[in-house]
Amino acid sequence: MLDAREVVSRGCVVEVGVDAITGDFIAMYVFAAATFTLFTMPSNSGDAMTGFAVPAGTWIYGSITAFTMSSGKVIAYNK
User: Fold this and answer.
1) pTM to 2 decimals?
2) Which residues lie across from 40 on neighbouring strands?
3) d(Cα 1, Cα 51) in Å, to the nearest integer?
4) Would the CA dihedral through 6, 63, 61, 28 be positive or negative?
5) What's the burial of 5, exposed, middle or buried (CB within 10 Å: 0-12/13-18/19+)?
6) What CA–CA distance (Å, rounded) separates 6 from 35?
7) pLDDT, tens only, 22-73
8) Other CB atoms closer than 10 Å to residue 58's CB: what's the count?
9) Are 38 and 66 within 8 A, CB to CB?
10) Strand, coil or helix: what is 7?
11) By the 8 A CB rule, do 78 and 25 touch?
């Protein structure tokens, strides 16, 4: 289980636009429905996390290394 105080102390990136973001993130919170055009989680397999809206209020956990949105607002927490 993630310790919220520890995660917050590592810093974060807030993205509300369409910039390409890279980093080493452990979790992401969606503030406003987000549609990703790029979403990279190297250790995962299956379908891409792109082309559909992820609802506001969603937490995404895992090793996230890059993302780009066409719309939405998120905060990504550093590993």
Assistant:
1) 0.86
2) 66
3) 29
4) positive
5) exposed
6) 28
7) 999 999 999 999 999 999 999 888 888 899 999 999 999 999 999 999 999 9
8) 14
9) yes
10) helix
11) yes
The first and second tokens of residue 36, run together, are 């990703």
Is pLDDT above 80 for 2?
A: no
Pairing mode, if any, of strands 21-40 and 53-54?
antiparallel
Place of tokens 């780009």: 68
What is the amino acid identity at position 46? G
Determine the pLDDT at residue 47.
87
Pairing of strands 59-78, 12-15: antiparallel
What's the token pair of residue 73?
């607002």
The burial class, CB within 10 Å (0-12 / 13-18 / 19+), for 16 is middle
